[in-house]
């Protein structure tokens, strides 16, 4: 039976050897009691936990899980306009499954290579039942910071990418645990699954927004929930226009109420939502073309009115949409 140290050596110590070129500023990778990196900038850091059964299905493809474990963290760096430096990986595993570890580490490294975010350390331990994955990322930032509390009245609200696919895939996967999916549902799952299991962090977009946006957030807990954080912290109110929301192509044939819930409240979305002065709208259009990422104006920031919720959504007849569940909250039974 192979032990903890063999496992680390085999799957997670690519930055240990001298032949491995370390990221800028990384002085010491996986090897010693601590890793070491240096930077002349300020450091942004963030951690996300992924727990089996809570954040991923036990039978999920380990390659995509490795990708996602890092992607959700890089998404937080993206939302701060930070440039990745390095990451740490904590793993609690009920058993050593070589195939799983090999695929997981490949998925992890593929993304860490793509965004120059080397794995420089971590911890590995046994867990009683479930897999727990904890990633910490470090990135360089400089002022002005892309914070949640800087949205201004008159700003346009933008969102990257297309919305709703991850939520639809999640609902279908839950359903498939109980019963066989219809051929249409299976096809829909094929077209939406990538968004749920293999999200792309918007690192380049985040960095480009530094000169354009007032407030930025990644909408991992759902558009309404996360945009709500910007509104609350900035003491402003959002008008959103439903017909402007970028809906994932695969969802076009679904009933309006289902699409509405997926797009407005569906979580596990690693797109950026941001507010920017109206004078930058043309520049944002040019940026979208340059990066090859759709950027859509979905609403505007208005003055907060007493007793109103933080966001009002209008349908295409300019009627207020009755608010449903806002988004994802681990400890709330309803939001
Ligand atoms: P310590 O006893 O100081 O916690 P370990 O024996 O746990 O050190 O780890 C040895 C080395 O392997 C350290 O450099 C540590 O950062 C690294 N390491 C352990 N687990 C992982 C992992 N899952 N991913 C990356 N590096 C890891
Ligand atoms: Mg340790």
From TrEMBL:
Misc remark: Reaction mechanism of ThiL seems to utilize a direct, inline transfer of the gamma-phosphate of ATP to TMP rather than a phosphorylated enzyme intermediate.
Residues bound to ATP: 122-123, 148, 220
Originating organism: Pelistega ratti
One Pfam family from the record: AIRS
Cross-referenced InterPro entries: PurM-like_C_dom, PurM-like_C_sf, PurM-like_N, PurM-like_N_sf, ThiL-like
Chain sites annotated for binding Mg(2+) 3: 33, 76, 218
Keywords linked to the UniProt accession: ATP-binding, Kinase, Magnesium, Metal-binding, Nucleotide-binding, Thiamine biosynthesis, Transferase
Binding-site residues, Mg(2+) 4: 33, 46, 76
Domain PurM-like C-terminal intervals: 152-308
Biological function: Catalyzes the ATP-dependent phosphorylation of thiamine-monophosphate (TMP) to form thiamine-pyrophosphate (TPP), the active form of vitamin B1.
SUPFAM superfamilies for this protein: PurM C-terminal domain-like (SSF56042), PurM N-terminal domain-like (SSF55326)
Pathway(s) annotated for this protein in UniProt: Cofactor biosynthesis; thiamine diphosphate biosynthesis; thiamine diphosphate from thiamine phosphate: step 1/1
Name under which the protein is recorded: Thiamine-monophosphate kinase
Residues binding substrate: 55, 268, 328
């Amino acid at each position: 039976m192979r032990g903890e140290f063999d496992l680390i050596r085999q799957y997670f110590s690519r930055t240990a050897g001298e032949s491995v070129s370390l990221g800028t500023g990384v002085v010491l990778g996986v090897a010693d009691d601590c890793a070491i990196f240096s930077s002349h900038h300020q450091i942004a850091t963030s951690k996300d936990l992924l727990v089996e059964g809570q954040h991923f299905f036990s039978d999920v493809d380990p390659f995509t899980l490795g990708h996602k474990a890092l992607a959700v963290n890089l998404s937080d760096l993206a939302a701060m306009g930070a440039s990745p430096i390095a990451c740490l990986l904590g793993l609690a595993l009920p058993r050593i499954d070589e195939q799983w570890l090999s695929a997981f580490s490949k998925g992890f490294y593929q993304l860490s290579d793509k965004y120059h975010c080397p794995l420089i350390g971590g911890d590995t331990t046994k867990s009683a039942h479930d897999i727990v994955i904890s990633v910490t990322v470090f990135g360089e930032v400089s002022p002005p910071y892309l914070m949640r509390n800087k949205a201004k009245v008159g700003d346009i609200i933008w969102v990257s990418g297309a919305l709703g696919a991850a939520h639809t895939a999640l609902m279908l996967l839950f359903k498939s645990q109980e019963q066989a999916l219809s051929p249409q549902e299976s096809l829909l799952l094929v077209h939406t699954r990538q968004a749920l299991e293999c999200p792309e962090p918007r690192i380049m977009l985040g960095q480009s927004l530094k000169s354009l946006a007032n407030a930025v957030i990644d909408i991992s807990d759902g558009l309404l929930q996360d945009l709500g954080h910007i509104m609350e912290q900035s003491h402003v109110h959002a008008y959103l226009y439903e017909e402007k929301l970028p809906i994932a192509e695969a969802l076009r044939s679904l009933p309006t109420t289902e699409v509405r819930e997926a797009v407005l409240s569906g979580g596990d979305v690693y797109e950026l939502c941001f507010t920017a002065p109206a004078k930058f709208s043309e520049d944002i259009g040019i940026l979208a073309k340059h990066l090859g990422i759709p950027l859509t104006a979905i609403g505007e920031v208005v003055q907060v009115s007493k007793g109103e919720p933080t966001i009002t959504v209008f349908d295409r007849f300019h009627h207020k949409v009755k608010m449903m569940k806002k988004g994802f909250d681990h400890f709330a039974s309803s939001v």
